[in-house]
Amino acid sequence: MRFRRMFTKTASPVVADFGASSVKLLQITGGETPAIVAAQSLEIPDEARGNTDRRFAFLADELPTVLRQGGFQGRRIICSPASSHFIVQQTRVDPESPLSADDQVRAEVAGRMNCLPGAVVARSFPIPGSDRDRVTLAIARDDVMRHVDLLKRCRFDLVGVQPDQFPMLRAFDHLHRRVEDRTVVTMYVDAGWGAIKVAVARGTDLVFARIIPIGGRQFDEIAASAWGCTASVARLRRVSEEREAIAAPRPTVSEEPVSDQMSAILRAGIAKAVRDDAQAREQAAVGTAVAADRRVGAASPSLAAVGSSGVVAAELAEVHESIAEELLMCARYSQAAIGSPIDRLVMVGGESHSRRFAGHLARRMGVKSSVGDPIRRLLAATPEGAGVLVPAEEHPEWTVACGLCAIEVEA
C-alpha cells in the first residue's frame, strides 16, 4: 500500500492509538504529499494504566474534550485498542476441513477465550509459502463494543479496528518499493509501557506476531525499587538519564606535541586507533544504518541509527536480557516458518527512545538495527509542526498512529 493511494478524501479519518500509557490521536490530509491536520496526545495517569475499568472511566471523562478541541475534521475514526485486549498466536488450519480458514481460526480462539465463536472478532494472515499456517490476531467482541460506546460519547463513528501489528507494518511500506525489497525479513519491535509487540514481515507480508508482557512498566518498577522512589519518579529519572547518555560527547584521542621523527608513526597509530574504535562502535551497534532512501541515495528519514550509548544500567540489565531472549526465540520461530533469517530489526514505541536498551537488543540480535520514525515523512510536509509533534525531535511512539493513517477503511 502506498501513501499516494491511501487518501482519496480531503482528510482521512481520525486515528486513535490506544496505548496503556497514553492515547495518540492523528489526522492527515489527502493528496500526493499528505500533511498533518491535527495531532494530540492524552496521557493516562499511573493509577488508571493497569486497570481496564479505570482507564475507560478516565478516557470517558477526558477524551471528548481532547477530540473536540484538537482541531480534527469530520466524525469518522479508526482505532487500535491496547494490546491487553488482544490474543496473538500462530494457528494451523486444516485445508480438508469443511469449515473455512476464518471459521477454524475463530473457533480455536474462542476455545482459548472460553466463549462462543460469535463473541470473537478475529483476523488471520496466511504465512507466505504455507497453506496451513496463519498468524491470528483476535479480540473479544465486547471489547470492540466498549470502544464503540466510548467513541460514541465523543460523537465519533468508529469505522475500523486494527491490532497494533498490522499498522506497524503499514507505517513502513515506503521501505519496500522495489521487487527485491519483498524478500527482506524485518522484525518490528514496538516497545511500549504495557508490553512489547513483535511483528515479523517478509517485505510487507506479516509472517509472525507476538505480544511479550514486559515493558516500561517493569522498567519503572525495577528502577523504583533500586533507587528507593516511586515509579513515576523513576520513569522521569530514566528518561533524563537516557537523554544525557545520548547527548554525552564521545571521548576523543588527545593531540599532544611530538617530535618530528615520531610524529608520522604516532599519527598513523592514532589514525588506526580511531578507525578501530569506530569499527568497534559500529559492530557494537550491529550496523545500524538501514534502508537507504534509493531515490536520493541518503539515509531514510524514517530510520535513525541505534548507536552505542554505554552500558545498560545494572538494575535493568536482567530484564533487558530477558526481552532479548524472547526476541531471539521469535526470530527462531519465524525463520523456521519461512526459511529465512531476520535481516534487520526496527524498534518503535516509547521505550525505543532508550538507546542503551535499543543498542543492547541490537547487539544480542546480531542484525542491522534502527529506531523507526515514520511520522517524520508527514512532519516534512508540516514544517510548522502539529500539536505535540515537534519536527526536530524523534517520535517512534507515533508509529502505530502513522500506520493507521495508511490503512484504507474497508467498506
Task: Write up this protein.
With 411 residues, the chain is an alpha/beta fold. 39% of the residues lie in helices and 22% in strands. The chain has a domain at 177-248 and 271-373: ATPase, nucleotide binding domain (Nucleotidyltransferase, domain 5), CATH 3.30.420. It has helices spanning 3-6, 46-49, 52-69, 101-113, 141-153, 165-170, 216-227, 231-247, 260-284, 314-338, 355-365, 376-380, 399-405, and strands spanning 14-18, 22-28, 36-43, 76-80, 86-92, 120-126, 133-140, 157-161, 185-191, 196-202, 205-212, 292-293, 298-299, 303-305, 344-348, 368-372. A six-stranded mixed beta sheet has the order 11-10-9-15-16-14. Strand 10 (196-202) and strand 11 (205-212) form a beta hairpin. The two termini are 17 Å apart. The model is unreliable at 1-9, 250-263 and 277-297 (pLDDT under 50).
Residue-averaged pLDDT: 82
User: In what order do the strands lie side by side in the largest sheet?
Assistant: 11-10-9-15-16-14
Strand residue content: 15-25%
The proportion of residues forming helix, as a percent range, comes to 25-40%
CATH C-level name of the domain at 177-248 and 271-373: Alpha Beta
Biggest sheet overview:
6 strands, mixed
Number of helices: 13
* CATH A-level architecture of the domain at 177-248 and 271-373: 2-Layer Sandwich
| Structural class assignment | alpha/beta
CATH topology of the domain at 177-248 and 271-373: Nucleotidyltransferase, domain 5
CATH homologous superfamily title of the domain at 177-248 and 271-373? ATPase, nucleotide binding domain
Apparent shape: globular
